[in-house]
């Protein structure tokens, strides 16, 4: 069972920031937001702010019965899973994805870095041998998460593309909730939102937590959107989005680019709650100063949108 709270002083700081956030949340309806119940009944409560916009759906076990086969077949999902130095997390991610599949997974692309360890590549091959839907693609441009995402999107053959990592910081079980949101709403894409009720952070640095919240609220206003986790790289995008946008990010700034550019171009993006859990193996290569690349990407996207609107007025 995933616990949202972190132990010790981190938990105390996190709870303080959460209470501060709840007091500052703007009043009003959050369109494009769905609330899905989690396994822990204590995490299923909705705040008054989101209750009017919430769509309650049954847990995964019962969804197939009420979902016509033709509706499920309307989503043919390519799941891009980036692999760097993970081992057991790769196998666990793939197993969870396949166990939740209701017929919508077309392929799981293990996008492996050229610097991946021999053990990582061996486990990738084992996963591919066990299920024909799993295939390995070696990253050509290196290093950089942005290159991995871009090459994965290019290699995808489904009509929707999920982007996630093999380190379990992106919650594999949430993919099914994202697909359900697409089926229910017909939206063009879905992002995972750690700030929604039912989502959260575990083992997350408290200073980063506070800075993350400030960033989200600032750019939520600038982009005039109800989406609340613009920097999280875990999402599903339609192939129309993937193929129609010229992607620029080479490192972790791709995480915000794949959300704000679709927003700026008028695609309908929704959100579902998800829990971020600190990795159990490996080490993040996203340094603190690289976070400024997120800011740069956001402002460049805003500037490009403004220039496009000015040209259209002429």
The CATH level-2 architecture is identified as: Alpha-Beta Complex
Question: Mind telling me the CATH superfamily name?
Answer: Spore Coat Polysaccharide Biosynthesis Protein SpsA, Chain A
For the biggest sheet, the summary is: 7 strands, mixed
Ranges where pLDDT stays below 50 over 5 or more residues in a row are 1-14, 20-62
Overall morphology: globular
Helical content (DSSP H or I, runs of 4+): 40-55%
Which structural class best describes the helix and strand composition?
A: alpha/beta
Number of strands: 9
Description:
This protein is of the alpha/beta class and 314 residues long. The protein has helices spanning 8-24, 48-51, 69-72, 88-100, 118-130, 145-155, 174-185, 206-222, 239-244, 254-264, 292-313, and strands at 77-83, 105-112, 134-138, 160-165, 189-193, 200-202, 235-238, 269-273, 275-277. The strands form two sheets. The protein has a seven-stranded mixed beta sheet with strand order 3-2-1-4-7-5-8, sandwiched between helices. It has a two-stranded parallel ribbon with strand order 6-9. α4 links the parallel β1 (77-83) and β2. The radius of gyration is 19 Å and the shape is globular.
């Amino acid at each position: 069972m995933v616990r949202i709270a972190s132990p010790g002083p981190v938990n105390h700081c996190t709870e303080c920031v959460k209470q501060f956030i709840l007091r500052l949340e703007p009043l009003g309806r959050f369109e494009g937001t769905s609330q899905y119940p989690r396994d822990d009944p204590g995490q299923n409560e909705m705040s008054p702010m989101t209750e009017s916009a919430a769509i309650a759906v049954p847990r995964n076990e019962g969804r197939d019965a009420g979902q016509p086969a033709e509706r499920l077949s309307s989503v043919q999902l390519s799941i891009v899973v980036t692999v760097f130095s993970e081992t057991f997390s790769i196998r666990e991610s793939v197993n969870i994805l396949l166990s939740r599949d209701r017929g919508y997974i077309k392929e799981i692309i293990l996008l492996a870095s050229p610097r991946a360890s021999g053990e990582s590549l061996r486990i990738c091959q084992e996963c591919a041998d066990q299920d024909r839907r799993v295939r390995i693609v070696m990253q050509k441009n290196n290093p950089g998460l942005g290159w991995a995402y871009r090459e994965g999107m290019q290699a995808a053959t489904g009509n929707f593309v999920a982007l996630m990592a093999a380190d379990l910081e992106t919650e594999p079980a949430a993919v099914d909730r994202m697909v359900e949101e697409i089926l229910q709403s017909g939206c063009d894409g879905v992002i995972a939102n750690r700030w929604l009720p039912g989502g959260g952070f575990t083992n997350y640095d408290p200073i980063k937590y506070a800075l993350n919240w400030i960033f989200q609220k600032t750019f939520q206003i600038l982009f005039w959107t109800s989406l609340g986790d613009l920097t999280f790289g875990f999402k599903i995008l339609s192939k129309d989005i993937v193929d129609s946008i010229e992607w620029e990010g080479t490192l972790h700034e791709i995480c915000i680019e794949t959300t704000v550019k679709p927003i700026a171009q008028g695609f309908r993006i929704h959100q579902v709650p998800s829990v971020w859990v600190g990795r159990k193996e490996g080490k993040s290569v996203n340094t603190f100063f690289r976070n400024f690349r997120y800011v740069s990407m956001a402002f460049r996207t805003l500037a490009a949108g403004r220039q496009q609107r000015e040209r259209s007025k002429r």
